[in-house]
Each structure stands twice: as C-alpha cells, then as structure tokens.
C-alpha cells in the first residue's frame, strides 16, 4: 500500500504537490482506493474520497499501523564528505532509523559547503530523506540540517542524553571498549536521544576529538577495521538498532 506524508492533522487530510500527481498520474488511483497517510508521526489507513483540481482528498478509516521508529532518537553528525556521499548517507541512514542529519565543517573536510547552491542541495537531501522514509515505512521524516561549524556542533553536545564519536585511534587500540557495552549502559539509563559523530574522509582530527570529549562525548569502537566516511554511520545505526530493538 502506498505511503504519503502530510503536514496537517489527519482530520484535514489533503494530499498536494508531487504526491498528489503521483497518485493521479503514476499510480492512476481511483476514488475508494486505500493508501497510508502519515500525519503527526502516526500512520493511518485512508480511503481516497475525491479529486479536487490538483489535490487528492482522503478520509481516515479509523485503522492505524504500529510505528516502526527506533525507541531512541539518533542524530547523525557527519563531517562534510566528498561527492554524493552525503546523499548516500541520507538515504541509507533514513532506512536504518536516523532521526536527523547534522552535517558539519570538519578540519579534514575537503569539500566546502557552497552557500549559493546550499539551499537547493539541502532541499534535495530532504527529498531523498522523504522518499527513503516512505520506502522504509517510517512515520518520521528525518530533518536534514544546513551544515554548521564545528564549534556549533560542540555547543550542542548538552542537548543529547549520550554522544559518541567514531575515533580511528580507538579502532587502532589493542584494548577497545565494545560499542555494544556502551550502548547497553545507555539503554539501561533509558536515554531518549543519542548523537553519533563521524569525520569526513581522514576522520576526526585529534583536536576535534579532544574538544568533543571535554564537552561530554565518549568514543565508540566500530571494530578493528577502518570504515569509510559513508559506511561508519550505517554500521553504528545498525548496532543501535540491534541493542534497542
């Protein structure tokens, strides 16, 4: 069953824009067809009642679908990577349950955010997150934030119940604290929000890691192998899903 997100309450359900065109011209649905409409983080089974100009009017049947969301809100902060890696991270991390994506300008980021093209880039990433949320039957579309400076990232550490850094030095150590053990501790404390921080290609600079840890973050070991910038967030989200779900 097709899934669509709306920003209004379900009592005022009206599907507009690209989603409405998709229903009418791609899916060629008729009145009486059932679809899933997600409103205010709840998925409702709805019936199409009418087509009004370019909009689709629907009515809730009274049936809802259980939420598949992670029991903890995980925000991914990643240093700006090269190429289209940010798009890959957005798509796959959304499928794995990411709550929000917070790109930041890291010391080792080769790519610099183009302010002139930034709005369109952010809009594209948000669209990718929306489509991935629909595909994976989410009831929440991750918020894709505009990139921030590293110092701004450090200032937000206190907004989360737990903060982890993917640090290459931890991976190289002979004796590592298992990420699973740290997650179990967070789980036992019934944390509601987690921030996981990843560097760009080349990883987090030593100075950046020290600043984050001084602000209250802790390192996480993702195993003895060094992962790519686009792989590490997906590994961490999978581990969190395993522990919490």
Automatic annotation (TrEMBL):
Residues 69-241 form the Ribosomal RNA small subunit methyltransferase E methyltransferase domain. It is found in: Cytoplasm. Its main location: cytoplasm. It is an enzyme of class 2 (transferase). One of its GO terms (molecular function) is rRNA (uridine-N3-)-methyltransferase activity. GO terms for cellular component: cytoplasm. Residues 15-53 form the Ribosomal RNA small subunit methyltransferase E PUA-like domain. Keywords: Cytoplasm, Methyltransferase, rRNA processing, S-adenosyl-L-methionine, Transferase. Its EC number is 2.1.1.193. It catalyses: uridine(1498) in 16S rRNA + S-adenosyl-L-methionine = N(3)-methyluridine(1498) in 16S rRNA + S-adenosyl-L-homocysteine + H(+). Gene3D superfamilies: 3.40.1280.10, Hypothetical PUA domain-like, domain 1. One of its GO terms (biological process) is rRNA base methylation. It holds the Pfam family Methyltrans_RNA. Specifically methylates the N3 position of the uracil ring of uridine 1498 (m3U1498) in 16S rRNA. Acts on the fully assembled 30S ribosomal subunit. Belongs to the RNA methyltransferase RsmE family. NCBIfam families: PRK11713.1-4, RsmE family RNA methyltransferase. This is Ribosomal RNA small subunit methyltransferase E.
